[in-house]
Structures are given as C-alpha cells and as structure tokens.
Amino acid sequence: MHRLSVDEFRHAAKLPLVVVLDNVRSQHNVGSVFRTADAFRLESVVLCGICCCPPNQEIHKTALGAEESVSWTYFADTKEAVRQLHADGYTVLAIEQAHNSVSLDDLHVDGDKRYAIVLGHEVFGVAQDVIDLCDGCIEIPQYGTKHSLNVSVTAGIVMYDIANRLRGTHSPTE
After folding, report:
1. Residues 90, 18: contact at Cβ < 8 Å?
2. Which one of 29, 43, 132, 139 is most buried, by most CB atoms within 10 A?
3. Measuring CA to CA, which residue among 137, 99, 144, 100 is closest to residue 118?
4. How, if at all, do strands 90-95 and 136-139 pair?
5. Ordered domains of the chain (ranges, CATH)
6. Is the bond leading into 141 cis (omega within 30 degrees of zero)?
C-alpha cells in the first residue's frame, strides 16, 4: 500500500499547509486533526490555549499514532501563533462564518505561498481577536438547517480541498 514509516514521513516533503487549533477542547477532535494532517502530508499542527497536547491517550485513540508522525507545536495564546506564522511568511485564514468570509468554493490558492488555517472552539468558534489578525476567513457552503459542522469534519473538508489545490502546483515527492 506504499505507506510511509513514521521516520520516512518526518523526512518526506510536505504540503505548505499548517493547521492551527484555537482552544479546541475535545481531545478526540485534536486526534482527528492529527490523523487527517498525516493523511494529506501537511507541514504541521499548532495547538493553542486549552488544546491538549501529545502524548495523550485520548488524542492517540483518534490519531492512531499520527501525533507521532506530524510535527506539532504549542502556543498558550493563539494570537502569538498567528503572529509567528505571519513572520514565517504564511497566509493565515480562519475557518469561520464571518462578515466578508469567502466561500471555500471561491478560494484562490497560490502554489507559491504557504498557508495556515485556524479552526476554533467547538461552541464559540475562532476567537474574534484571532480572526482580526488573520488574512481572511473561509466558510464552507452549507445548505441544510444547521449552520455549523463539527470542528474535525470542518478540518477534514478544508484540509482536503486546500491540499488538492496545492498538489496541483506543489507536489510533495514520495
């Protein structure tokens, strides 16, 4: 099945996409994000605020070891993480329904840029002071009676979409 070992994954080229979790409280959601980041071979996960960090048995239940392959960092304050990502040359986008948000369908991804997406707390979303520091907001079009998705589902949809767009112009090697 051509799966990489953890060591091979760590040394493999990654897509220039970082996932930032802003005070995500569920350890299962955190684990799911690690597992999806591994699946798409993303650069890293940034855990902020109340997010639990590996090693953690509850994260491991969902991540199934991806917390060992995917690079991660922790910031007590999400705003500091966003500032650091900007300093490192990333375009930072909050995933949030907000004034002037762009539909994921309409998002333009430049293969020469590095991106970070910020996902928020399960109830409160991405904090407004974090949104204010971001370069923009993306929202997923929704057509039912609910106007939100679980954070790990949202992460999966957005990671998959942006990863596919980046692969069109920036393809990691095996």
Report:
1. yes
2. 29
3. 137
4. parallel
5. 6-167 (3.40.1280.10)
6. no
Residues across the chain: 174
List, for residues 10-57, the tens digit of each pLDDT value.
Answer: 999 999 999 999 999 999 999 999 999 999 999 999 999 999 999 999
Note the helical H segments in the chain: 6-11, 27-39, 57-63, 66-69, 78-87, 128-131, 151-167
CA angle 87, 16, 28 (to 5 degrees): 95
For 41, 102, 149, the CA distances from 145, given in Å and listed in that order, are: 33, 20, 11
Q: Which two tokens stand for residue 152?
A: 């790990």
**pTM of structure:** 0.94
